[in-house]
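INTERNAL TRANSFER SHEET
From: sequence group
To: structure group
Subject: Serine phosphatase RsbU (Regulator of sigma subunit)

Please process the attached sequence and return the structure record in the designated field. Keep the field labels unchanged so the import script can parse them.
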Amino acid sequence: MVDVAGAAEPLGHKSNKGHTDHPGSENDAEMLAVRLAHAQRLGNMGWAEWHMHSGETIWSDQVYLIFGRNPADGPIALPDLAKHVEQADMGTLDRLLWAAVESVEPVQAEFRIRRRGELRDLRVVLEPLMAPGGPIGLHGVIQDITGRRRAERMMSESRRQLLEAREQAAEELHVMLALREAILPEHPGCLDLPHSTIAVRYVPAEKTASLGGDWFEAAPAPDGRLLLAIGDVSGHGLPAIAHMAQLRHALVGLAMTGQPAHRLLTWLNDLVLHQLKETTATAIIGHLDPETRVFAWGQAGNLAPILVRDGVASQLDQPRGVLLGAAAGRPYELATTRLLPGDLLLMFTDGLVERRTRDIDVGLDLVLAAARDVPARDLDAGLDHLLADIGGPNPEDDACLLAVSIPAQGAEPLVKGATIDPC
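Return from structure group:
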């Protein structure tokens, strides 16, 4: 506790016995006064004394600033102090004064005052002002802690908002996971047919809390062909998932017409332009004929599939096709690729190869190298190895993979039948 009572004495006065003033004492006192005033300004605090018997009140200059009071009006007497205290804090002031009178130890409390209509937070430390005959009043330190309490309230409010945001994000993620699981199962397994094996994989981003709009479709068509598709709707979160669901369900319905892939892309482009405002999407749509092994496909702004044949991985030549939702009236071309026994076809969205930390061509080269080692007879496990070989899931973006393997001559798939079963 700083002995602020001593500050009321003349600073040039030295109380040590046998000591006499010397020529430098006046300068020392002035320097000490300057330093004391500077310390009070830095701490936004001042000292005060209330003499009970004489009724005298003494304030340091900083207390006048704290109360917003003109020094010409003099300090506020102790009985009048309550007039300046916020009504809700009157009990705190009463308890402080009673404790200060009855205790020989310093006591402290916080209360608010009104200064020119503004609430200010004060911390007041009081202790008895002692004389040889006993206490003659109170003296203490008054500090304006408005800035500190305001910062604490802001921090508390920020923590509250952050907690609410985290709870809301967790709830939204739970809803997104449930919605996406209903639309696109996390572990879809494989589609095993007499002439091919299909494996699909949805790979969520490793770090981001918002799911993306990547999707796939692998299902037998009414005419006996196999509909194969992947796509990626722009954005993240519930809007992207909702748009993904609309686009995917629309494809399933349109595919029932038996129209070729490039016609389906034209219709989906119209859907995005007119129904999914301010949205774009990429897609690859194809039909695989299980008898002829001809894959007829088109694309809309998506990277071309990778074909692995005889241990060599390369991208297919890409037919013309613009991003879904980018422009109206632009044609989509149809390409055909005849798959041979032992071939592996890999379709994927850009989240598989893109990273902020590397060029897309580097990611594509990694996928090409890893695709060569995907075994045709264990396609599901092969996709897991491929993901590990390219560095794992993308930290910032989702990805979808769809792989088609054509058994080599004399080889049969592990499970036959046009049903979705675990690999």
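Handover comment: Confidence is low (pLDDT under 50) at residues 1-20, 412-423. The first strand starts at residue 45 and ends at 51.
Transfer complete.
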